[in-house]
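Worked example 4.2. Below are the chains of a multi-component assembly; read each line carefully before continuing.
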Amino acid sequence: MTHSRFNAGRRRFLSSAAAAGAMTLGSPLVLRAQNSELNITGWGGKWGEVFEATVGPMFEKEYNCKIVRDTSFPFVPKLQASSRRNPIYDVVHSNQNAQAAAVVMGLVEEKLDPTNIPNMAELYDYATSDTINGVCMFTSAIGMGYRKDLVKEVPTSWTDLWKEEYADKRGAYVIPINSLGQAFLTMAASIYGSGAKDLDAAYEALEKLKPIKLVDFTGAMEKMILSGEVELCVIHDSGVLRYYDTPNEAAFCAPKEGVLALEQVLNITPGTQKRELAEAYINFMLSPEIQKTMAEAVWYSPANKNVVLSDVYQERLLTTPEKVAQLKQVDWMWYNANKDAIDMRVNRIFRA
Amino acid sequence: MTPGRLAYIALNAAILIFILAPIAIIFVFAVNPVPYIDFPPSGFTWDWFVQFFTSDIFMRSLWLSLRVAAIVTLLAVFFGATASLAIARGNLPGARTITAFVLSPLMLPAILTGLALFQAYMFLDIGRPLWGLVMGHVLVTTPYVVRTTLAVLHNFDTRLEEAATNLGAGPVRVYFEVTLPLIKPGVIAGGIFAFIVSFDQFPVSLFLIGPGNETLPITLFNYLKFEMDGRIAAASVVSILISLVVVIGIDRTVGLRSYGKM
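Applying the procedure described above to all two chains together yields the following C-alpha cells:
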C-alpha cells in the first residue's frame, strides 16, 4: 500500500512537473510576463482614447500584464533623469526626431533585433531604414493642405507654396519646436538646393516664404486650414483626412517631389528589465490586426505591408509600394546635430 | 466729464477688454459647433460640454485636480500660516533669510522646480506617486500663504494677545480665539491662491504626474498636441468657472473683503 501510494504520488509529481515544464517551454514569454508592468510612452488625443479602450486591454489580456502608459511630454528628459539600469520606460513611442536624440544619449537602442520581433519582417523598408532607430510602426505623409474653395489651381508641387498669391495666406510650423517644420526645412533644401542638407539654400527659400503664418502645435494647422485662415499650408495627411466625415473645404495634396515621412517609432530602453515583454509589445503593435485598428482610428499609414484597410482608408493612406515610394525620410541624426545652428538662423529669418 | 476722467475710464476699459477678451473667445469657441475658432460663430451647441463631461479621461483628470488642489490648499495653509507665525513672532535669528528661503519657489521657474523634484524622486527611487505630486504643489503654493499671512501679521496688534493672556486665557485659547481670527483674512486669501495655483498647475505637474494620474491641465496639454476642438474650450470654461466658484464661495462664507480692506 505504502509502495503503491508512493508510486501514485510520484506519478502525480512527475506528471505535474512535466506539465509545468511543457508550459514553460511552450510559452516562456507568457509565464515571464505574468503580473508584470510594462512602462511605455504614448500619445494622448484620439490615439490615446482608442489605445486605452481596445489595444491596451487586448495586450494586457494576452500577456497577463499591465501597461503603464505615460502620455505626458517630454519623455526624453524624464528618461534621462531616471536610472539607466532601471529606466522609467521599457518602450518609448515617439517620433523619430526624439528617438534620434535619445539614441545619442544612450537612452534607447540604436537598432532592434528582428529575430525577437517577427512582425518586423513584414514591414515596408522605410520602417527599418538607416534613418530609423527602433522600428517605425506608422507614418503620416507631410505634404500640403489647401482650401478647395479658395485656391485658383489645385497645388501639385511644393514650389506652389512660394507663389506670390499665397503671401500671408500660407502656413507652416515654427521650425525650432515642431518636427513637421524641421522636416519641411529639409524639403526646401532639396528643392532649392543641392539636397536635403543644403542649409544655405533652405534659409534662402524660407526667407522668400515671408509673409507666412506659423503655428507651434501640430493640430493648430488643421484649424487654420479648416477656418480658412490659410489657403495653402504644410500639413500631414492625417491632419486633413481625419475630417473626412465632416463637411469641410480642406484637401490634402501629395506634391510631385514627394512627401515627408512623419514616423511613429517604437524602441526599447537598453536597461529595461522586461525586454521580452517589451519585444512582445512591439511585435503586437506591428501585427496586422492592431495596425488596421489604429490606422483606421487616427488615419496613420501602417508600416506592415500585409495590412488591408477598409476602402476609404486604403485609397487615401500609403498602403501600396508605389505610394510608399513617395516617402522622403529625414536624417534626424544629422538634423539634431545641427539643430542649434538651424534654430538660431531660422529665428533670425522669421523674427523680422 | 473732464478729458482726464474720460481718458482714465477709456484706459480702464481697454485693460478690462484686454483681460477678458481671451476668456470671451474661449466661451464663443466652446459653444460654436465647428471644431475651430470661427467668428462670428456659425451656430450654437452644448455638444463640446457634453463630450467633455462624458469623457472618462477628462472627468478623471478634473476630479483628480480638484482633490489634489483641496489637499494642497489644506497643507499649504497649515505650513504657510505656521511658518508665517514663526517668522513674524518667533524672534528667529535670520528671519529675513528664512523668509527669502520660504518664498524662493516663487522666484525659480516652476519648470525647473518640477524637473529638480523629478530628479530627486528618481534618485531616491520614490517613483511618481500621487503624494509626490501633492508635495510638489505644496512647495510652490505655500509661499502664497506665507506672503499674504505675513502681510496681515505686519499690522497685527500684539497687545490684543497680551490682553487675552492677562485675562487668563492660555496660549492655545489665545491662538484660536484671538490670533487666528485676526490673521484669518490673510490665511484665506493665501489659501485661495494656493487652490487656484494648484488647480491650474502645469510646469511642476508635467514632471511629477505618473501614468494614469494626469491632472486637468496636463490632460488638456496632451489633448491639445493632437486635437484642438471645442472640448478644449469647454474644459477651459469649466476650469474658469470652478476657480470663480471657489473664490465667490469663500468670499460668501468666510469673507475676503476683510483682507482687501487691510
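Take a moment to check your reading of the output against the notes. Chain B touches chain A through 28 residues (CB under 8 Å). Chain B has twelve helices and no strands.
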